[in-house]
């Protein structure tokens, strides 16, 4: 068994390119090609389709994918256990996150943690709530920030209730209202966060049986804020996204308040490395101090 070959195989699938995989893992392209050829020779199967446009996994490779991932996960756990024996002198914590948490929470959490454990490294994987939960179940992550309630198979720690607010340009007619009326959501051009990223926002329209006047669909929270600033429409976003924004916008709670509950989840606390377990305590302490 050659762990490097397995890593090369998974990274090539993830990036869709031998060149990118080689650059990420620190190999030459010929080196990673040799490893993949050796792996296919060992398995006596074609695992990747390779051409000028990139690399894609074959049907045989796809069947083997979860087993190879499982081997790497076991190796990852072994390495972490060895690191624990060496008093956290090194290690890797893999975290699933999304835009607002990455911008507003994680920098402070990681900074505090690394003051005490400077040699622990972090790998951040960005996804939707659902993707983060799936990656946890697949073993790709140690912990993930999720919307609560999450998958019942995960152990989740509640962190913070985050209001959902209506974002308006500074000169909007309702900029000085105490609350934004539910009926007003269909009156103005609306800038929508793409499907899959805004579950709690879609629920607001469904619950109140309102169809927004969608003029734009954008996948990035901060791009939405910039478009609102320019007067292209209104939008609905979690308040956390707007924290410390320099954009000339205002935001109002709905007359019928809406929230998202945020937490951090793990698959199995008994399988967590010591570094990941300690990091979870730093997460909770940081939240407690930040919002006290």
TrEMBL record:
SUPFAM superfamilies: Periplasmic binding protein-like II (SSF53850), Winged helix' DNA-binding domain (SSF46785). Transmembrane segments: none annotated. Belongs to the LysR transcriptional regulatory family. GO terms for molecular function: DNA binding; DNA-binding transcription factor activity. Gene3D superfamilies: Periplasmic binding protein-like II, Winged helix-like DNA-binding domain superfamily/Winged helix DNA-binding domain. GO terms for cellular component: cytosol. It comes from Bacillus salipaludis. InterPro entries: HTH-type_LysR_regulators (IPR050950), LysR_HTH_N (IPR000847), LysR_subst-bd (IPR005119), WH-like_DNA-bd_sf (IPR036388), WH_DNA-bd_sf (IPR036390). The lineage of its organism: Bacteria, Bacillati, Bacillota, Bacilli, Bacillales. This is LysR family transcriptional regulator. Keywords: DNA-binding, Transcription, Transcription regulation. The keyword Cell division does not apply.
